[in-house]
Amino acid sequence: MSDDDERRPGHHHQTARPTQAVVLAGGQGSRLRPYTDDRPKPMVEIPGTGTPIIGHQLAWLAAEGVTDAVVSCGHLAAVLQDWLEAAELPLRVRTVVEKEPLGRGGGLKFAAARLPEPDQPWYATNGDIWTRFSLRDMADFHDERGATATLALARPRIPWGAVETNEFGHVLDFIESPPSPYLINAGVYVFSASFTALLPDRGDHERTTFPRLARERRLAGFPLPQGAYWRAIDTAKDLTEAAKELAAGPPPHGHGPFDTTPVPHG
């Protein structure tokens, strides 16, 4: 974690950095069963840490300057709310519960309505992401581009071994789990205050709001820095892999599943 607010003389973006965030924690996590039989997906513990995914997320957000978070609950909401109430948290947290599924975009809009400063920018993160990188740098990137929304981009590793051939069809090499040629949405966002009004009341913003902003060149993509740790916890295998990576060295010093080049952290 780089605590680098003062890293550049005369740096003028500090006031634009969000201090509020929405965590989307309502997913059913059916692919994580049996872990999610009695708890929502963000309440699944990362093996070896004794802390659920959302605990790691809230600690990261607080370390990046967030003072207020709105957690959007759905599946088994009471389990998550009870844990948040009992835990000693490093920031103020309020919860909202969707009475009926609103879709990802509608859920974001519903939760954003409870942010303490609706006229200020905000972060958002999916509740199943375990990551460490500088949100401050991402906020500056967003601000410098005058974007309405910025999404973090990860380059995951392909889960299969790849075969490299030449133009004659000769096999040249075997590459174990190579990086994907494509960047993916990493599930972490910076939004300007004006973004909230563009969200649908129901439905998926990735099929409506994001394409519209992309056409208008108001959507930015922030590639995660080399060596940053990122993993989406979707399946039991992801939990196993996260535990292995933790044993090798916990984030932010550990290796991510999409990049194995560590970088120094200040």
Characterization of the model:
With 266 residues, the chain is of the alpha/beta class. It has 6 helices and 11 strands. It has helices spanning 53-63, 77-86, 103-112, 135-144, 209-215, 236-248, and strands spanning 20-25, 68-73, 92-97, 122-126, 129-132, 149-154, 162-165, 171-175, 184-191, 219-223, 229-232. The strands form 3 sheets. Strands 3-2-1-4-9-6-10 form a 7-stranded mixed β-sheet, with helices on both faces. The longest helix has 13 residues, at 236-248. The radius of gyration is 19 Å and the shape is globular. The termini are close together. Residues 1-14 and 250-266 have low confidence and may be disordered. It comes from Streptomyces endocoffeicus. This is Nucleotidyltransferase family protein. It holds the Pfam family NTP_transferase.
Strand order of the largest sheet: 3-2-1-4-9-6-10
**pLDDT average, as an integer?**
81
Please give the number of β-strands. Answer: 11
The helical percent reads 10-25%
Give start-end ranges of low-pLDDT stretches.
Answer: 1-14, 250-266
Protein name: Nucleotidyltransferase family protein
Domain Nucleotidyl transferase: 21-247
InterPro entries: Mannose-1P_guanyltransferase, NTP_transferase_dom, Nucleotide-diphossugar_trans
Organism: Streptomyces endocoffeicus
Task: Give a brief outline of the structure.
By secondary structure, the chain is α/β, with parallel strands linked by helices. Helix content is 23%, strand content 22%.
